[in-house]
Amino acid sequence: MLFNSLHFVAFFIVVTTLYFSLPHKLRWVLLLLSSFYFYMAFLPVYVLILLVTIVIDYYAGIYIAKSHGRKRKLYLIVSLIANIGFLSFFKYYDFLVGSIDELFNVHIPYMRDLWLSSRIIVWNNWVNSHLNLIGTDLPILQNIILPIGLSFHTFQAMSYTIEVYRGNQKPEKKFGIYALYVMFYPQLVAGPIERPQNVIHQFYEKHDFNYDRAVSGLRLILWGMVKKVVIADRLAIYDNAIFSNLSHHSAPTLIMASIFGPIQVYCDFSAYSDIAIGAARVMGFELMTNFRRPLFAKSFQELWQRWHISLTSWFRDYLFFPLGGSRRKGMLRGAFNLIFVFVVSGLWHGANWCFVLWGFTHGILLVVERLIKPFTSKFVRFLGSASTAITTVFIFLMFGFSNAMFVSKDLHEVGGYYKNILTWKSGGLYKGEPPTAIIYCIIVVAILFIAEYTMEYKPQIKLLGHKNVVVRYTGYVMLLTLLLLIGVFNGGQFVYFQF
């Protein structure tokens, strides 16, 4: 069920109305059944995968809390293996098998020649017999469909057992409440990736209807819908035409796509988070903030403190710090930890070498930024007040140029993209269909930056939250008019559903 559909509008109204109509003790049952329905609207059979992992993690949490010593770690490992195993099978099996086949098909003849020339007959026979087993005999399961949001609810489930193991969360005794923690429909498919300490206790609390809180949630939903339907899906008309064949376009076209691309991804993904947080807020639940206007970041470190906060904080707490972080075991180990975490983050986004390269690139950029910080600090002081604008534009452009790795089908496309820019392949701007596509893109980008600039630097100026009722409702009318006039109502799927 897509947030940007009439199906969801009807679902949200019915569920919210029933939620406040039912006695408190039955509300969690309504939310759980509604969440199952919400997920099964995509592909019913895959709810079974969630049920299996929910059962495993529920009992793992209980046994972790009851056990001591090695047994506690054993139950945690069982839980992690189950979650990572399902994720690996559905998301990475074909990628791993295809990579192994490609590696050995390309490199084995050369390797065999080296072994033959060195006349190590025993080794040669052993290698031949074993490498032939590794080759193309492994099946590619092309008919496997990746369950919607698998990476999101897998990481949320893993955070539960890890926090129970660390002693930061008591094991949930009610199976239904734990299932609701994993299945809670607003953030089930694309986050935010919540922690048990923030959410589980809220299912026990009674939430009476609160007008101000409901209006705040509905405003967030409205702004999320504008970001998705008006901005992201409008930019997608232009971007998809370019990104579907990056290496064949001119340098000006690719630069324009590098500007629009990250804005499209940001608006699409943050729109989902806004609608999820808003829908939960109407019912009285508070989910964590997932984006804080990352396009205004003045450094790469700040960018990742503002972008997909629930995921970056997950990797920080459950991978980066356990590896030693950046302060322990020396500078080189810290740099390795940072790059490794971002490579894993790239793989989290998709089973493609382009995502690995994207993660590796951002890891390198963060390491380089830390190394040259003493020099850049002097440069920023020299620029004075102009430094904010210059560094913000620079980080945005660098982020935009790296976006090609994020959207490309393969490394060949990535290479063609950068080659055409560096060699300045001539040609005009691709105007797409209709011819006014670029004009629409410029309009919606201007709307976004005006709105977010105000939120970032002029928070006292509030349109939707203005005290004057005329000003407030003028804002509502303006956003609704934008939705109706230039919104793209084709039921476009959210970008992060594929992750």
TrEMBL record:
<dbReference type="GO" id="GO:0005886">
    <property type="term" value="C:plasma membrane"/>
</dbReference>
<feature type="transmembrane region" description="Helical">
    <location>
        <begin position="330"/>
        <end position="349"/>
    </location>
</feature>
<keyword id="KW-0012">Acyltransferase</keyword>
<dbReference type="Pfam" id="PF03062">
    <property type="entry name" value="MBOAT"/>
</dbReference>
<dbReference type="InterPro" id="IPR028362">
    <property type="entry name" value="AlgI"/>
</dbReference>
<dbReference type="InterPro" id="IPR024194">
    <property type="entry name" value="Ac/AlaTfrase_AlgI/DltB"/>
</dbReference>
<keyword id="KW-1133">Transmembrane helix</keyword>
<feature type="transmembrane region" description="Helical">
    <location>
        <begin position="437"/>
        <end position="455"/>
    </location>
</feature>
<feature type="transmembrane region" description="Helical">
    <location>
        <begin position="7"/>
        <end position="24"/>
    </location>
</feature>
<protein>
    <submittedName>
        <fullName>MBOAT family protein</fullName>
    </submittedName>
</protein>
<dbReference type="InterPro" id="IPR051085">
    <property type="entry name" value="MB_O-acyltransferase"/>
</dbReference>
<dbReference type="InterPro" id="IPR004299">
    <property type="entry name" value="MBOAT_fam"/>
</dbReference>
<feature type="transmembrane region" description="Helical">
    <location>
        <begin position="379"/>
        <end position="401"/>
    </location>
</feature>
<keyword id="KW-0812">Transmembrane</keyword>
<dbReference type="GO" id="GO:0042121">
    <property type="term" value="P:alginic acid biosynthetic process"/>
</dbReference>
<keyword id="KW-0472">Membrane</keyword>
<feature type="transmembrane region" description="Helical">
    <location>
        <begin position="36"/>
        <end position="62"/>
    </location>
</feature>
<feature type="transmembrane region" description="Helical">
    <location>
        <begin position="74"/>
        <end position="93"/>
    </location>
</feature>
<keyword id="KW-0808">Transferase</keyword>
<feature type="transmembrane region" description="Helical">
    <location>
        <begin position="476"/>
        <end position="497"/>
    </location>
</feature>
<keyword id="KW-1003">Cell membrane</keyword>
<comment type="similarity">
    <text>Belongs to the membrane-bound acyltransferase family.</text>
</comment>
<dbReference type="GO" id="GO:0016746">
    <property type="term" value="F:acyltransferase activity"/>
</dbReference>
